[in-house]
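hey can u check if this looks right to u? its 629 residues, i copy pasted from the old doc so theres a chance i mangled smth
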Amino acid sequence: MRITEFTVRNYKCFRDTGTVALAPGMNIVTGQNSAGKTALLQALSLEFRGAAHISEASLPKPGLLSNVISNISVTLSISGDELLEMANAVRTVRFVIPSDPNDPFISQVGVDRRFNSADEYAKIWYAMIKSPEIRFPLEHSARDREMGGSLRPRELPSHGLYRTSWSNGNNPRNIVRELMENGTERFGMAYEAPADLVDFLWSQMKGRIYKFTAERFGLADAICGDNKVLQGNASNLAEVLLNLRANPGRYEQYVALVNEILPQVKWVELEPIAGNQVRVKVWLIDKSTMRADLAIPLQECGTGIGQVLSIVYVAFTSEGQRVLLIDEPQSFLHPGAARKLVEVLKRFPSHQYIISTHSASVITASGSPEILIVESDDGVSTIRSESTSDTQAMQQFLEAVGARLSDVFGMDRVLWVEGPTEEKAIPLLLKKMDVPIAGTAIVSVRNTGDLEGKQKKRAFEIYNSLTEKASILPREVAFLLDRETRTEQEIREISKLSRDKAHFLPRRTFENYILSPAAVCAVANAIEGFSEGGLITEEQVNQSFGDCIADARYWAPHAFPQSLRLEAAELHGARLLEDVFSKLSGNRVRYDKTEHSVSLFEWIVEHDRKSLAELEDFLRNVLSVDSGQ
């Protein structure tokens, strides 16, 4: 069974989602916190407490009463084989007989059309269970404070395989199919109120939808029995695991899957206890040690272990299709385990998975062709489907700027900077400036060459196309690049290609802002063995800077200036620092751009921040412009 489409109305943050389609396998639901991801999974569980939508859209004036009925329209799809399995579980089902003898379904069945014999009833039933797919359009409603609510077909018969009709006082004939104790079937006719398959199969359908959240299940001891189906609340986990252990090979496969997700779980033991009960105990050491006394009861383990044991059991043991609703797996598993859980679940593609998450690693691992994005505006949540079919273009863009999806996913905006030095250093200054950067990712452009020359047009085109398609990448982006030796014409060209998202430092390189003799003296003296003659002095650093900047190669290709100043924008600050470090240390220490530049910048931020006034004004302007302020 799977959910093919749904519409949520008047439930919590959703006023009306419109019709939203779901894929057979992996489905990812993402969005900001409190956007409505959890509420959506609650609705899809088809077992929720009514909670009317409240917003200015539904209550435009104070004092108005909200509609107290929450509703979800959902289409459940099952195969004929599943229909037979469900029917056998309830043993007796009733369904309305076709009313139109010219119905195409009846023509295919080849019955007498008078529908007056058990053989003809059987033919209709057998034709139904041979169907590759049967869709049931259903309505599930719940009043405020009512749990479970009611379920009814949106049309009759709910299966839609053929047409039927009836009127008040003229009840139709219902076919009765019964599975006898000896395994044979018996078919008959009943004259009564209209009967629909959903009336008899709903308990079976509902039992195939599992919802897993960060809340701890009641995974206490369970009574021994022969049940092999996990209950929705996983309360009989110990019982089903005990029955699975009766097949040692299969049980070892199950534990191996759990171990793949949680390497710390070496074995899962079932311990008989008093009262015909069994207890789940987790081995965190190899079972070959035979130290059963060190096994930990499951109820004393973290929430994530119980969730993984339950989720994997459903996916691994269920022969028919199941719907697994998994809410924020990264909230009860660390990122690596959450990603591995998704990778393991993909090995059981017959099930449908609906996973809410804001984890980039989970989204990437899912390989889902589409992502459902939940967005909230003025208290009203909406859902849009975003295709990820252009993953190649996205990957090209991310590679062009040397980043991963996890670097930027979930952020409101991204400030791409020249390299790892700026990625580490700039947040230090922004914090001192008291500039709020929550929701802003500062990520280094490691392959800056792709934003220049022949590649720059392609790189910016990829980003712009992704933005226009409302991709999962942040909408607000700025590129903060070194000025280098770019001409004004080159700067205008790059700015145009980036749609004015590229900003250039007022000085040649970022290192131009850390040409501080005092900072160099402090950082160099903190390096063990920097100078053979002991600690260096600020005067020595000043002299070294003065000797270097008198060389024209630190200014090329610009003309040699009449006034030599460390603050000059044309000076090659990065090259200057490399040579000064080498000269002062007697070639003992090679200048490390990422390590030493960050240390210099950190010292200046703490001891000489006023020298960074130009950079502060530049950053404040970039961040305000790209936030629309």
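The chain has five domains: 1-77+322-387, 80-131+160-208, 211-319, 390-504, 510-625.
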